[in-house]
Amino acid sequence: MAQGLELGGDPVDCLSDTQLFAIEPVYLWDNALQRVLRQTDEFRRMTAAERTPALILTSCDQNNCAPDEMLRALHKFTPKLTVWLCPAESPNPKSDERIVLTRDCTQHDFPAP
Questions:
Q1: 21-53, pLDDT tens digit by residue?
Q2: Do the beta carbons of residue 95 and residue 58 sit within 8 Å?
Q3: What φ, ψ does residue 40 adopt, rounded to 5°?
Q4: Neighbouring residues of 50: CB distance < 8 A, sequence distance ≥ 6
Q5: CB 80 within 8 A of CB 110
Q6: Are 27 and 57 in contact (CB under 8 A)?
Q7: Which of 17, 22, 73, 82 is within CB 3.0–4.6 Å of 36 for a Cys-Cys bond?
Q8: pTM of the model
């Protein structure tokens, strides 16, 4: 994964061989979505290569994760989009416990089947 790139005046949070990621707290999901769509479009124009937009939304807990507004808005969303809903990092900065995307986060693919 590449890091430290800038597209459209905003830093790219993460870029893989297949996806371009925006990472934000869950309550900023709409801002993250707008940014990642701009950046994937810019990436495509600059490189002629495709990347699927993806969101990693952090700080999810039972009270705020997967808000109905977000799920309704993304249910039939195109282009293809992957959203990972992840819990908050440990509040203890000295903790060795880290969030592992494939273990701790819930993946949602849109448009929903």
A1: 999 999 899 999 999 999 999 999 999 999 999
A2: no
A3: -65, -35
A4: 44
A5: yes
A6: no
A7: 22
A8: 0.85
Residue with tokens 């992840």: 86
Contacts of 28 (CB under 8 A, 6+ apart): none
DSSP states of 48-110? S---EEEEEEEEE-TTTSS-HHHHHHHTT-SS-EEEEEEEPPPS-TT------HHHH-EEEEE
* Token representation of residue 44: 């495509």
Q: Which amino acid is at 1?
A: M
Half-sphere exposure of 54 (CA within 13 A, CB side): 21
